[in-house]
Automatic annotation (TrEMBL):
GO terms for cellular component: plasma membrane. PANTHER family: CALCIUM HOMEOSTASIS MODULATOR PROTEIN, CALCIUM HOMEOSTASIS MODULATOR PROTEIN 2. The chain crosses the membrane at residues 23-44, 56-76, 96-122, 187-206. This is Calcium homeostasis modulator protein 2. It is found in: Membrane. Belongs to the CALHM family. GO terms for molecular function: monoatomic cation channel activity. It is a multi-pass membrane protein. Keywords: Ion channel, Ion transport, Membrane, Transmembrane, Transmembrane helix, Transport. One of its GO terms (biological process) is ATP export. InterPro entries: CALHM.
Amino acid sequence: MAAVALVTENFKFVSLFFKSKDVMIFNGLIALGTVASQTAYNVFAFNCPCSPERNYRYGLVAIGVPALAFFLLGVIMNRSTRDLLSECRIRRCRKLAMVAMFAVTGNIVGRAAIAPVTWVVISLLQGEAYLCALSEFVDPDTLEGFPSQGRNVVQLMAKFPCKETVPSELLAFWEEIERRLKYESQLTGWLLVAGLVLGVFLMLCLKHCCSPFGYQQEEYWSSFHASERDLFQRTAAVHASLHAAENVKSFFGFVALDIEGKEQVEEHARAMVPVPSTDWNRVTGVYLYRETGGEPLYSRLHKWARYHVDNNIEVMEKEMDMLS
């Protein structure tokens, strides 16, 4: 029972990475953008060589290389990747438990996989790359009435993706070969779609079963996190601008501020205190969720503010490195 309770508690953290409606919308836009890119690629760039051995290489590259590029780009652009790198750089990952690593890695891989999986699925459903890659492997003995071609059969079958290169006496078989290979390609694509839908369904069930939040609190957490990030970024931009203005003024003796900048200087002059690097590090990195005394702490900044208000420096030094 203890083991079951531990596993259930650990999976609560994983569910927190799949909670925002904004994330769902963003993922949908990524998928739509990938569909548009794939369609444009097939129209303007895809050109099967129709040559033995080159066909399957080109077909596999046409499916795999863009998918890999999309995946790596998704990993690089994911905010969680930067959080994980910051965590390892600042704290040497000494507090990054396996559950936290699984949750963060799952978030990164899941988000980054949207575009490449969409590319692969659309490629398979269109069937052009699959037709190019596997045409030379079609066994002519399975085609009724196909004449014997001896040793040249592979070279001949490799020409079928390019209809204009097929010998006139074999054009009658072109449609059957194309239909067979596209059937296989689309069947694979639909099976992949079914597997993905089932996987998403199971993840959503796991999320709702293991989430430490009720529905209302989860909605509140999402709103809190989005608002905190927006306010933090806007405030940081103003703080950086005013800090830069002070440095420019100390160098030139004056600073050329617009009306809005002058108003900001007057309003925030007393608050212009440089933020220590230790505080920046305390609010940077991986954070899942924890509570203290029954009070939820929704972010690293929330945790920092909680201990800062209490002026409990000793506890802050001990607790700020904790993930959960």
